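Exercise 7. Given the encoded structure of a 375-residue chain, write a plausible sequence.
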């Protein structure tokens, strides 16, 4: 394929190139600064591999978007701060899409474990959106009676330029785009499209490329200038068509110097395509007078084409959640038919962390700390 790369960009090495490597779980392992006026050598073969990987990324992403699909995600969100006890919130994300029907269903389920919110039992909050041929229905909040989708005008906002219907607290997970974005943008109320093209082909400069053990390829990029922009490190896997497996963003601004985002991805093949199978995100969150590491661990299950029954994409169903959760053998808070707030609920089974949730095995993480406080 043709390599769209200007070698003069790679040779314009800045006076100071900061390289910071952050472990996923919050500690800086290596921090070095290299000052040089020399021209950095560039291996055109490696540069070609980088752009081959970005091209493969676009091919697999676009193939996924064109197909009828269901994406089921289960995971955990950790908040780890210095001044407050660690917090763990299990979660679900569900997406069903059929371009031919102009159908899309998006749902988020957030679980509060016993001991939080002053309750000794687990609670769930679900927010859902159904979009079909320009019409939107939604439902949300704690399960306290029969769940019904409703149409609404005041509760939704239309982005006329993008033609996107936004519903508050209904979050999109775009695994491909989120992998190379900032962890803080993981939960967006609208789809993210074209992040790779915008970031790596239009607004960032490739600085260097080097091979690493195990078939990995590490490239360094800079978005913006060297004092106020962002340094990006992209690691690609030669055994997976040079698809990205790790992305880190480092702020070069003096007020926010250091790593601000880190993502990891483990790819799996589904038919002729690669899709993310497990992902991990780490970013910063501020609140309650503390700075938190916000870490998401996600396990993704995909179904495409005929694997997604046609009735899953019928536009007037009354409960899409039931279809997907029952299929994956998961329970959720649901009404028993009695219209008595909080008295007619069939509670979901207690949350169990999937055995294969983590790409890496975190030590002394929030779950272990939480378990220690219970003993």
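Solution.
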């Amino acid at each position: 394929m043709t390599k769209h790369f200007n070698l003069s960009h790679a040779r314009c090495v800045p006076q100071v190139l900061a390289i910071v490597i952050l472990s996923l779980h919050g500690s800086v392992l290596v921090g070095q600064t290299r000052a040089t006026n020399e021209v950095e050598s560039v291996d055109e073969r490696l540069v070609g591999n980088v752009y081959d990987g970005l091209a493969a990324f676009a091919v697999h992403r676009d193939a996924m978007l064109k197909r009828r699909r269901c994406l089921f995600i289960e995971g955990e969100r950790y908040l780890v701060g210095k001044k407050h006890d660690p917090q763990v919130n299990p979660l679900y994300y569900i997406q069903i899409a059929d371009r031919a029907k102009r159908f899309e269903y998006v749902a988020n389920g957030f679980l509060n474990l016993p001991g939080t919110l002053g309750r000794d039992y687990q609670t769930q909050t679900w927010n859902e959106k159904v979009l079909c041929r320009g019409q939107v229905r939604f439902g949300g909040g704690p399960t306290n009676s029969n769940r019904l989708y409703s149409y609404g005008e005041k509760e939704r906002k239309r982005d006329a330029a993008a033609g996107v219907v936004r519903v508050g607290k209904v979050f999109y997970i775009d695994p491909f785009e989120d992998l190379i974005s900032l962890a803080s943008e993981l939960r967006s109320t609208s789809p993210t499209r074209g992040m790779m093209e915008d970031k790596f082909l239009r607004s960032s400069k490739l600085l260097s490329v080097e091979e690493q053990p195990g078939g990995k390829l590490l490239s360094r990029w800079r978005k913006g200038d060297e004092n106020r922009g962002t340094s990006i490190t992209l690691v690609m896997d030669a055994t997976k068509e040079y698809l990205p497996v790790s992305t880190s963003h480092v702020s070069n601004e003096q007020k926010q110097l250091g790593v601000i985002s880190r993502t990891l991805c483990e790819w799996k093949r589904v038919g002729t395509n690669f899709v993310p199978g497990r992902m991990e995100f780490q970013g910063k969150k501020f609140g309650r007078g503390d700075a938190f590491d916000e870490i998401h661990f996600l396990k993704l299950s995909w179904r495409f084409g005929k694997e997604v029954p046609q009735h899953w994409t019928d536009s007037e169903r009354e409960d899409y959640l039931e279809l997907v959760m029952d299929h994956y053998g998961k329970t959720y808070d649901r009404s028993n038919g009695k219209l008595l707030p909080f008295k007619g609920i069939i509670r979901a089974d207690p949350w169990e962390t999937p055995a294969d949730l983590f790409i890496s095995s975190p030590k002394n993480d929030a779950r272990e700390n939480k378990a220690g406080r219970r003993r």
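Remark. DSSP finds six helices and 18 strands in the chain. Students should compare their own answers with the one above.
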